[in-house]
Design goal:
single chain; Rossmann fold; 5-stranded parallel sheet; 4 helices; UspA; Universal_stress_UspA
């Protein structure tokens, strides 16, 4: 039976490192990796008609960014060399990251979540990014469900 692993991505370097780390860590295990990008369309405009059109344009823009980002990751994985034991699925979801992660875990029967400790903002003075903290606080029912990629040092409890 294939291990089902969720890897949320915001297309940052840390997210890519989490993907490659997961691939390397489970190189001898049959796995289905689910690469998840959650996006939200947010626009600030005035006037009902302009707002509706702006929100639709923003939605399409964010949807396209998500799809093209996931496509780029697939290309990078192919360039890196695919493992016959691994299959990759992409999930592009309009939602906040925490809700999208919870939905994916439930719908795809995910066994493990692997994510970078910091996202695209990569704040210097913080060990964990806000999405990582939200996942730890709101999702983790068992410490063995979550595995983090640390920027320079690999560390895991699995």
């Amino acid at each position: 039976m294939k291990k089902k692993i969720l890897i949320p991505t915001d297309f940052s370097k840390n997210a890519w490192n989490a993907i490659t780390y997961a691939s390397d860590l489970f190189q001898n295990t049959e796995c289905s990796f689910f690469l998840l990008n959650a996006y939200n369309a947010t626009m600030h405009s005035r006037g009902k008609l302009m707002k509706d059109k702006a929100e639709m344009l923003s939605f399409e823009t964010e949807k396209n960014k998500s799809a093209s980002g996931l496509e780029k990751i697939q290309e990078m994985l192919e360039f890196r060399g695919l493992n016959d034991k691994h299959e990759y699925h992409v999930l592009s979801v309009q939602d906040d990251p925490l809700s999208a992660i919870q939905m994916a875990i439930e719908k795809k029967d995910i066994e493990l979540v692997i994510m970078g400790t910091k996202g695209a903002s990569n704040y210097e003075n913080k060990l964990f990014g806000s999405n990582t903290i939200n996942v730890m606080e709101n999702y983790v029912s068992s410490p063995s469900h979550l595995l983090y990629y640390y920027q320079k040092v690999y560390s895991h409890n699995y």
